[in-house]
């Protein structure tokens, strides 16, 4: 078979152990299909605790990490891959762990001059007893992605959120509480340190939650975003600065909010392993600048070569 990655054995990690498992399976399948179309020999791995043994037996040339959320995106799997000496996609151990911890990432971003929302870290039982700030505010797990476990507490709410102390809560004891920033939901993909463009996300549900992100027709995307003069450029520079401040490599996606009434732009978080599903933002932005899905996936694999775990050129 001929193609851009002909002769390469690529292990695609998908599934995993986090609440984002289902999304990861879709991302992994799409990327594995693209790699096969590009000539690679692909091993599809539903990653579990035996990952090191599986990879040792397979001996791939490179690993495409399509895992999302805790364990796969927070530095743990990256540490396994470092130990095995395998080149792998996306960010290294430190950047992955830092970006996944919202409180620590915000501190680093603020120190680098990137505007972030206020708020802080609280125990989930504490915020269930009383409002820790005046509504409206947002409650989110400190170490999850894909809007898993995110709660909005609106102005006039009868009381603090109780979902965080329900028996079904599975997102950790610490939660981030931030003031709600009204306005537009924006996203910027960064590829090799350079921002691609800005997407304005219009969720049909009123909030860009898990269903709006991954459900068919859950949101509309305007690419590039139609914003006041200078805001697109400002959002792109903020995303690049965040990518660099956290020490990321490869492709990341920064999520931002723009209060178009008060002209306030803040960066919410950086996703070090953004989704690559049919409704995902990064492939859509890449396509806007002429990079097809297969070419994007190939570039991510090629970028994994020649770098050490923290993204420095070897």
TrEMBL record:
Mg(2+) 1 binds at residues 255, 269. GO terms for cellular component: cytoplasm. Its EC number is 6.3.2.4. PROSITE patterns: ATP_GRASP, DALA_DALA_LIGASE_1, DALA_DALA_LIGASE_2. Binds 2 magnesium or manganese ions per subunit. Residues 106-302 form the ATP-grasp domain. This is D-alanine--D-alanine ligase. It comes from Phenylobacterium montanum. The lineage of its organism: Bacteria, Pseudomonadati, Pseudomonadota, Alphaproteobacteria, Caulobacterales.
